[in-house]
Write a structure and sequence with these properties.
Blueprint: H1 2-12, H2 21-29, E1 34-37, H3 46-54, E2 58-62, H4 66-78, E3 83-85, H5 92-104, E4 109-112, H6 120-127, E5 131-136, H7 157-162, E6 168-172, H8 177-186, E7 193-196, E8 204-210, H9 214-224, E9 228-232, H10 236-248, E10 253-256, H11 262-273, E11 279-282, E12 295-300, H12 307-314, E13 324-330, H13 332-345, H14 349-362, E14 374-376, H15 379-386, H16 390-402, E15 406-409, E16 416-420, H17 434-447, E17 456-458, H18 460-466, H19 471-483, E18 487-490, E19 497-500, H20 514-536, H21 542-549, H22 574-590, E20 593-594, H23 595-599, H24 607-619, E21 623-625, E22 630-633
Parallel strand pairs: 1-6, 1-7, 2-4, 2-5, 3-4, 5-6, 8-13, 9-11, 9-12, 10-11, 12-13
Antiparallel strand pairs: 14-19, 15-19, 16-17, 16-18, 20-22, 21-22
Helix pairs in contact: 1-3, 2-3, 14-16, 18-19
Length: about 625
């Protein structure tokens, strides 16, 4: 492990690995198939990135999220490690260049989506690659028992046919015993070594607040727990609304969701990472690949759809080992809303087929055509076209994407990119527009480095001004140069795009495995039910509920969750009853206060006992509580 430790120090700046990273890395270096189950913050990526730098050959990483891939690639590049990703925003020539560099050049680590494995072109090129390691990130996606099942993960075993002797490491942060078995079977792993780190977190206190006023309780919570925080919500609109509301109350705050312009997302993320803002309000799009150790509080103000997702998100608190909290604030309407959302996420099969057919009609795709074609996509326009609610269409398109028929890119105003794809000898033109084209190419070569190696981001407005051209003229000539095979030019896009991954099938040939789909729906409902049981639990340590869900037994109570701290207790000592009554009489004498307002003055884990005490005072005639909840003193 001496070489591994040296690389860890050189590139990551750490003196030693966190258990069981060292054992996982040694297993991979011994050419063993390996499964690594490390909860959020356990350092999964290091477990394949360190071996990738030790192995002589290349490492292929399969990951389901473009944003996660790009975050890891950017991090590796910042450390001086050669890494790239293939995604749907790249054109054919850009993909071809990256694959050439992976096969023949110095590109060490390549990230791809699972859909890429089904590409014959990719597999042909991969067969020529000296491959040393295959890493499957978010490996639970291959299991129908998992919370984020993706059928495209079934393609991955094809890689084993191409490189049968190359070891595979499968990594996940959240997997039940059944999912672990599925990962090993579906990936065709050979006697896989399995490494698990306990899900128990000694420094993380889990709390559930049954609230009468979510925002009031959120403010109270943020006033008690200082430091960096994340607030998770379940839709994009809420990220903006909650962030603006908190800002209005003097709390530094930013928001984040997948539909934001990328530059805005990156700016907000950087502000939070550098502590220029304290709070990030986000959908679950935020957090993957983000390593910020000093998060003191993670708040959910909606019901997470599974314990897996909940604990992965809550686990982003306290990675530095210091005290941290994961708090869920729910009210009576949340349980009803989550059931409605569930039905939206699993629409009838004929509805799914109908939406896909209308998507093809929307873009006027003929039967048998459309493969690899891309179009700007505006979900509002499409929903108006099909005359259906946005929420339902969003979930349906997500299902169609997971089934591998389409994929979406969210290239909101991405900068344009240019790369020269011909050699130097072809950079001279003899047609009527030669002077302008020569001037543009010369200017690009002077202004931007690496144009022959990688696509380079450009600003057409700025270049046009420098060349004394109209921007529309510049774009016209860039497109001519592209058509002539001189450059690769990918203009900036102002909208998300949809890419069709398969030809449009004939009527009745659109296919989703009915049995598999209904099974996934049942398992998703089981996961949701387990989450609801966790939230309604009033007598069992919350940490124990979580770790038992993941198959761990014989755990001790955490002593930190709201249950362990007495939230479910309903009685006070006689001394406490006297103290509360004395305090209540003083408060009521000085102010008009309601029952809810008074109870909210106490810590969350004592409110049930205070409420019972107030009812007791009322029955004994010390106070009166009217129909509006106002408290008055009677004695």
């Amino acid at each position: 492990m001496e070489e591994s430790s040296s690389i860890l120090k050189q590139y990551w700046g750490y003196d030693e690995f966190r258990p069981p990273q060292d054992l996982i890395i040694q297993s991979v270096l011994n050419q063993n198939d390996t499964i690594a189950l490390l909860p959020t913050g356990g350092g999964k990526s290091v477990c394949f990135q360190v071996p990738a730098l030790i192995f002589e050959g290349k490492t292929l990483v399969i990951s389901p999220l473009i944003a996660l891939m790009q975050d890891q690639v950017d991090t590796l590049i910042s450390k001086g490690i050669k890494a790239k990703s293939l995604n749907a925003s790249l054109n054919y020539k850009e993909i071809d260049l990256i694959l050439d560099n992976f096969v023949y050049g110095d590109l060490k680590i390549l990230y791809i989506s699972p859909e890429r494995v089904s590409s014959e072109l990719f597999c042909i090129r991969l067969a020529k690659t000296k491959l040393s390691l295959i890493a499957v990130d978010e490996a639970h996606c291959i299991s129908q028992w998992g919370y984020d099942f993706r059928p495209s993960y079934f393609n991955i075993p094809k890689l084993r046919e191409i490189h049968p002797k190359v070891p595979i490491i499968a990594l996940t942060a959240t997997a039940t015993p059944k999912v672990l078995d599925d990962i090993s079977e579906k990936l065709a792993l050979k006697s896989a070594s399995i490494f698990k780190k306990s899900f128990s977190r000694d420094n993380l206190g889990l709390t559930v607040i049954n609230s009468e006023n979510k925002r009031s309780d959120l403010l109270q919570l943020l006033s008690h727990v200082k430091g960096c925080s994340i607030i998770y919500v379940r839709n994009r609109k809420q990220t903006i609304e909650v962030a603006q509301w908190l800002t209005g109350h003097g709390i530094s705050c930013a928001s984040y969701h997948g539909g934001m312009e990328r530059s805005v997302r990156e700016r907000n993320q950087q502000s939070w990472m550098t502590n220029r803002v304290r709070i990030m309000v986000s959908t679950n799009a935020f957090g993957m690949g983000i390593d910020k150790p000093d998060v003191r509080l993670v708040v959910h103000i909606d019901v997470a759809p599974s314990i897996e997702e909940y604990y992965q998100e809550a686990g982003r608190a306290g990675r530095d080992g210091k005290n941290a909290y994961g708090v869920t604030i729910i009210d009576d309407t949340d349980m009803k809303d989550v059931q409605v959302n569930f039905e939206d996420q699993f629409p009838p099969l004929d509805f799914i087929a109908n939406v896909y057919d209308k998507l093809c009609r929307y873009y006027k795709l003929a039967y048998g055509s459309g493969i690899d074609e891309r179009f700007d996509f505006n979900i509002i326009d499409f929903c108006e076209y099909v005359e259906m609610p946005v929420k339902k269409i969003y979930h349906t398109l997500n299902l169609i994407e997971k089934e591998g028929w389409i994929c979406f890119t969210e290239a909101f105003k991405e900068p344009s990119r240019v790369m020269i794809v011909t050699d130097h000898t072809n950079l001279y033109f003899d047609d009527q527009s030669a002077n302008i084209k020569n001037e543009i190419v010369t200017h690009l070569l002077r202004k931007y480095e690496g144009l022959f190696v990688d696509p380079v981001k450009i600003d057409e407005t700025k270049i046009a001004k420098e060349l004394n051209l109209e921007e529309v003229q510049l774009i016209h000539y860039l497109n001519i140069l592209k058509a002539e095979g001189v450059i690769s030019y990918l203009p900036r896009a102002s909208k998300p795009q949809v890419v069709f991954l398969k030809p449009r099938p004939e009527p009745n040939d659109f296919y989703i495995d009915h049995k598999s789909y209904l099974l996934r729906k049942k398992m998703a409902l089981d996961r949701l039910d387990a989450m609801i049981v966790f939230l309604r639990n009033e007598d069992k340590c919350r940490q124990i509920v979580v770790v038992e869900y993941f198959g761990e037994k014989d755990q001790k109570t955490c002593g930190r969750c709201d249950i362990c701290l007495g939230a479910s207790k309903e009685t006070l000592t006689s001394e406490q009853i006297s103290q509360v009554l004395e305090h209540l009489i003083k408060v009521v004498s000085d102010n008009v206060i309601t029952l809810k307002q008074y109870v909210s003055l106490y810590p969350f884990n004592k409110r049930k006992r205070i409420l019972k005490a107030l009812k007791q005072y009322e029955s004994e005639g010390f106070i009166n509580i009217d129909n509006h909840g106002n408290i008055t003193r009677t004695k």
